[in-house]
Specification:
Subcellular location (chain A): Cell membrane
Order of helices and strands of chain A: HHHHHHHHHHHHHHH
Helix content of chain B: over 70%
Number of strands of chain B: 0
Oligomer: heterodimer
Distance between the termini of chain A: 28 Å
InterPro entries (chain A): MetI-like, MetI-like_sf
Distance between the termini of chain B: 36 Å
CATH class of chain A: Mainly Alpha
Strand content of chain B: under 5%
Shape of chain B: globular
CATH superfamily of chain A: MetI-like
Number of domains of chain A: 1
Keywords (chain A): Cell membrane, Membrane, Transmembrane, Transmembrane helix, Transport
Structural class of chain A: mainly alpha
Largest interface: A-B, 97 and 103 residues
Pfam family, one (chain A): BPD_transp_1
Shape of chain A: globular
Structural class of chain B: mainly alpha
CATH architecture of chain A: Orthogonal Bundle
Radius of gyration of chain B: 23 Å
Strand content of chain A: under 5%
Family (chain A): Belongs to the binding-protein-dependent transport system permease family.
Chain lengths: 293, 280
């Protein structure tokens, strides 16, 4: 292992090193490939099983002998899959927009304004990260049952999403990012007579796109896959989200492996697409936000 | 600023105090009368064998899971740093489990590790190793569950370490090379110390998440009892069982208060002992 190679870890934008095909690079590729195969095996198994016919399900072959989309059409026509999918999309979508808006606003205020009690506010928000969700869930549940929100249309959706509408982690992330923006820029806009909200919206926000992208994907992902709170708070089948709906598959339909695998494969698609499109910004976002310390 | 502040007060702080108060009552969502019982819920906890088991299991998950995902994550990130072509492709491949819904992952895991028709046992037989019972065995279920969590978290861990590695100025490695340092020397003397903030972040957030382990455990077993003979039961699952299965809300609240205290103490200790200031 030579030190020249080590320095490549440092940045991805360094000029390309001289082309050397030494055995260490080959070994790195080899290990990564084996690792990726092991990592992806469960994933591949899920998709391949979803394509198997009922007769073939319990055969041990890896590839389906006669691939069929029967499981998919059955999931879509015979279960409430589309409703659950829509519910999850709505809840994760609204939550993500809310987090992006409020967290960047709070993060910006904490980074660029001076006001009494600023540090206390920041520390209090951060300290909420240590409160276990389990501890909050019982009072939340008592609260939403008391005001009878759970069976009506806007009320039930609101109950599922309200805990996630603002995230302390996101505030922290956005604050770190806004701190790195030069003050001169904001001063200049102020002199030009721009409103404070205009400065935030038109100048500061566009400059922090990578942070917004990574915050968006992690918020969307977290809410798309959220399980504990929705499981408790959803009372009627029509309000179920994708994870809750698929988890309750078993009890209601017997273990229908083919259907479960098809539903799971479909649930992965949106997040995988978003990650594929934004992976550069997401990683850049993490690098720049000071998550590194 | 007002809306977010009110949000944090109403959604985070207020419920914390409500939970503290509930833990002093024999609270039951289904009943009208909620008698005050003082510390009785807490003294019951001390004698509760299942709670003790849940506590030990949760500790085991954390001790297995956190180091495993950090070490494997670091190795993958270092290897990714060594290659040029296909780096993005590999990054996306390793990230895939992280975006898989936990419920879906749990289904696949049950299938893979199934004693009768699971591909893992087929592979073991092919290697002339006797098939194992995995999730149906009280002694192997916890480790198999932990493996699922590590598998899912690996992608995020790798991205985190890639970010941490990218933040180390390459001039350090160049200087070390001039001084004639070997590869392993620069790893131990440069990479690892300068990666300390990332590692602390991973240890602290990883520990907090393992201490609250719930979704994987419940979905691998379809019960709130925790695997074969309670062998995979965690504290979070026990809270769920008590609060929403048996409606012993007061008692469940007492467990949440204990969990909160544990998380607080461990987080503060970790921050105190792991953080080393590296000046550069």
């Amino acid at each position: 292992m030579t030190v020249t190679q080590k320095s490549e870890i440092g940045t991805t934008s360094l000029p390309k090193p001289p082309k050397r095909r030494d055995y260490k690079t080959v070994l790195a590729y080899l290990f990564l490939t084996v690792g990726a195969i092991v990592t992806l095996f469960p994933f591949a198994w899920m998709i391949l099983t979803s394509l198997k016919s009922f007769q073939e399900l319990f055969s041990l072959g890896f590839w389906p002998e006669s691939p069929t989309l029967a499981n998919y059409s059955q999931v879509i026509t015979q279960t409430k899959f589309l409703t659950w999918f829509g519910n999850s999309l709505l809840i994760a979508g609204v939550t993500t927009l809310s987090v992006l808006f409020f967290d960047s606003l709070v993060g910006y205020t904490l980074a660029k304004f001076e006001f009494p009690g600023k540090n206390i506010v920041f520390i209090l928000m951060l300290s909420t990260l240590m409160i276990p969700t389990e501890m909050l869930i019982i009072p939340w549940f008592v609260g939403v049952t008391d005001i009878h929100l759970l069976n009506s249309t806007p009320g039930a959706y609101f109950s599922i999403m309200f805990p996630g509408l603002i995230s302390a982690f996101g505030v922290f992330l956005m604050r770190q990012f806004f701190e790195s923006l030069p003050n001169d820029l904001i001063e200049a806009a102020r002199i030009d007579g721009m409103s404070e909200f205009g400065i935030f919206w038109r100048i500061a926000l566009p400059l922090v796109r990578p942070a917004l992208a990574s915050l968006a994907i992690f918020t969307f992902l977290g809410n798309w896959n959220a399980f504990l709170w929705p499981l408790i708070v959803i009372q009627k089948p029509e309000f179920r989200t994708l994870p809750v709906g698929t988890a309750l598959f078993n009890g209601e339909a017997g273990t229908q492996w083919g259907l479960i695998m098809a539903a799971s494969s479909l649930a992965v698609i949106p997040v995988l697409l978003v990650f594929a499109f934004f992976q550069k910004q997401i990683i850049e976002g993490i690098v720049l936000t000071g998550l590194k310390g | 600023m007002a809306i977010p502040l009110i949000f944090f007060l109403v959604v985070r702080f207020l419920p914390t105090f409500v939970a503290l108060r509930l833990s002093l009552y024999d609270w039951n969502i289904l009943k009208e009368v909620q008698p005050y019982v003082g510390g009785k819920n807490y003294s019951r906890l001390i004698q509760d064998g299942i709670f003790g088991k849940a506590l030990v299991n949760t500790a085991l998950y954390t001790i297995i899971g956190v180091p495993a995902q950090i070490v494997i994550g670091l190795i993958v990130a270092l290897l990714l740093g060594k290659i040029r072509a296909l780096q993005g492709v590999f990054r996306a491949l390793y990230f895939a489990p992280y975006v898989t819904p936990i419920v879906a992952a749990a289904w696949v895991w049950q299938w893979l590790f199934s004693p009768q028709f699971g591909p893992v046992n087929t592979f073991l037989i092919w290697l002339h190793i006797p098939p194992q019972s995995f999730l149906t065995s009280p002694s192997q279920a916890l480790a198999t569950t932990a493996a699922l969590v590590v598998w899912q978290n690996l992608g995020f861990q790798v991205v985190l370490f890639l970010a941490g590695l990218a933040a180390i100025p390459s001039t350090f490695y160049e200087a070390a090379e001039i001084d004639g340092a070997s590869g392993s020397q620069s790893f131990w003397k440069i990479t690892l110390p300068l990666l300390n903030p990332t590692i602390v972040f991973s240890v602290v957030t990883g520990t907090i998440s393992y201490l609250q382990l719930f979704t994987q455990v419940v979905n691998l077993n379809f019960t709130d009892q925790g695997g074969p003979l309670g062998s995979t039961m965690t504290v979070a699952l026990y809270i769920y069982q008590m609060a929403f299965g048996r409606f012993q809300t007061g008692y469940a609240s007492a467990i949440t208060v204990v969990l909160f205290a544990i998380i607080l103490v461990i987080t503060l200790l970790q921050l105190r002992f792991l953080t080393k200031r590296v000046n550069y």
